[in-house]
Specification:
By secondary structure, the chain is an alpha/beta fold. It has 2 domains: 9-208, CinA-like (Maf protein, Alpha-Beta Complex), CATH 3.90.950.20; 238-467, HUPs (Rossmann fold, 3-Layer(aba) Sandwich). The chain is 39% helix and 20% strand. It is built from 17 helices and 16 strands. An 8-stranded mixed beta sheet has the order 8-7-11-10-9-12-13-16, sandwiched between helices. It has a 6-stranded mixed beta sheet with strand order 2-1-3-4-5-6, sandwiched between helices. Helix 1 packs across helix 5, helix 2 (36-43) packs across helix 5 and helix 12 packs parallel to helix 14. The longest helix has 23 residues, at 76-98. It starts with 8 loop residues before the first helix and ends in a 7-residue tail after the last helix.
């Protein structure tokens, strides 16, 4: 393979620096896109100091004989089987002779590049198991990558560069996670590569929270959204969302209140009645956007505040999506890439009014008409919970919007059967406002506990979240 121009200059320097490290020695196992990563270390010279073995078990029967049978060859499970076998074999064969002075590693990837006649982009799993110190228990890093070039050869080139960047980042800058993340796209760009999962484990990453890693993937623009389950497990979104109906509530969840939960529960009850959803189990998500996660507000810091929100969603059993999305149509676009089933969005009527407000669509050539059209061009329904106005009036979906144009547009969307009104299980819940609950928590006012679900209250108290007094 020939690399054009000087695109490999930084990549070559990185590969050479790894080759010149006297301690690192390992195996490269690559499936599906050739020996794209190992190739760099052979090209720059000195590979004998780094490469113990390079293998491409491309044939499925050969792959199964090496790593065991599998239903999906491009999967996290196959990647982990590759890392398990290659690292164990390397340490068992070479550990007695050079284990005292060597940090062994196994690099693996299993990738499907784009077919020339197809529309789907390339994707794959890439991983590294390594020792940070000789004889130390191994640490592991796994990532899921989308290869976005249209040409398969360019996708292979991008994979090779990404692999070199990953090895270099782990060996030379893993203690500075933001720097390491930024370096993954050296000699690349976001238009060519997206990384939507990055998980670490082991002694080299002691104290690293994978939920924070997910947040930083989004913050550093390596992906548009990252996902983890209700138990805090970081996942590739398709593992959870693929071909499922999806119901999502966008919010700050600062904290999640009884109103927050009731909104989602009432929406789910109505969502299950839709003909397209009957008999199916929907995925229920809480979505938090960086638009309100990272802006400084009354002294909070982004990652710590984000973890507090994630912590209180765990006892509610709700999966979390953290994204860069602003308009709702961007969220719907993202979810529709994983499912052809119905997408439901749960929100309050004041948020719905903002959806029809021209000032929030100024960046679009078609303004609010384009924003609404892009949201509802697919199978999307919006479930609208009432608000309690300052004067005590309950404002519902069926009440007029604040302006005549917005009301006309809302009526049009209603006529097309995209909106569903909700009603709270207890109208008294409408008086709960998250900012008021947050203020009571910080002031040590015990009345806040009655305004959030019991599991949320217990988690806030136990971990002193949101400024709860010790």
């Amino acid at each position: 393979m020939t690399y054009s121009g000087d695109i490999g200059s930084l990549t070559q320097r990185k590969a050479l620096e790894v080759n010149q490290d006297p301690r690192t020695f390992g195996t490269f196992a690559e499936i599906g896109a050739g020996q794209e990563v190992a190739r760099w270390f052979f090209q720059v010279g000195g590979a004998s100091r780094t490469v113990a073995k390079s293998i491409s078990a491309y044939d499925m029967a050969v792959s199964d004989s090496q790593y065991g049978p599998t239903q999906r060859y491009v999967s996290r499970q196959r990647l982990e089987a590759m890392l398990d076998r290659e690292f164990k074999q390397l340490v068992e064969s070479l550990g007695p002779a050079r284990g005292e002075r060597t940090t062994f590693f196994a690099f693996a990837d299993t990738v499907a590049t784009r077919k020339r006649e197809g529309e789907e982009h390339g994707r794959g799993w890439v991983g590294l198991r390594f020792q940070a110190e000789p004889r130390q228990d191994p640490s592991t890093l796994l990532l899921h990558v989308h290869l976005l070039d249209r040409d398969p050869v360019q996708q292979q080139e991008a994979l090779g560069i990404l692999g070199v960047n990953l090895l270099h980042a782990v060996f030379f800058s893993r203690d500075d996670l933001p720097r390491a993340l930024d370096s993954l796209l050296d000699d690349l760009c976001r238009e060519r590569v997206e990384i939507d999962v990055l998980k670490v484990a082991g002694p080299a990453f002691a104290g690293v929270d994978n939920r924070i890693v997910s947040l930083q993937l989004v913050e550093h623009r390596l992906t548009d959204a990252a996902m983890f389950t209700a138990d805090g497990e970081v996942v590739q979104p398709s593992e959870v969302l693929h071909k499922h109906p999806i119901l999502v509530e966008r919010g700050s969840f600062r904290p999640a209140t009884r109103l927050t939960v009731d909104l989602l529960e009432r929406a789910r009850d109505r969502f299950l009645l839709e003909p397209e959803v009957r008999g199916l189990e929907p995925v229920v998500l809480a979505e938090m956007t960086l638009n309100n996660l990272l802006q400084p507000e009354d002294g909070r810091t982004g990652p710590a505040d984000f973890l507090a929100r994630a912590e209180i969603l765990h006892p509610l059993g709700i999966d979390v999506l953290v994204s860069r999305f602003g308009p709702f149509y961007q969220l719907a676009d993202y979810l529709s890439a994983y499912t052809d089933k119905l997408i439901g969005i749960a929100l309050g009527v004041s948020t719905l009014n903002a959806l029809f407000d021209e000032q929030f669509s100024k960046k679009l050539d078609g303004g609010v008409l384009e924003a609404v059209g892009r949201l509802f061009k697919r199978s999307v329904k919006v479930y609208v919970y009432p608000n309690l106005e300052p004067g005590g009036q309950i404002l519902t979906l069926l009440d007029p919007a604040p302006s005549a144009p917005a009301d006309h547009l809302r009526q049009l969307v209603l006529a097309f059967d995209h909106l569903r009104p909700l009603w709270p299980s207890d109208p008294g819940l409408l008086a709960i406002h998250a900012p008021d609950v947050l203020a009571r928590i910080r002031a040590g006012d015990p009345t806040w506990t009655s305004l959030v679900p019991p599991g949320v209250a217990a988690r806030i108290q136990a971990k002193q979240l949101f400024g709860h007094p010790a």
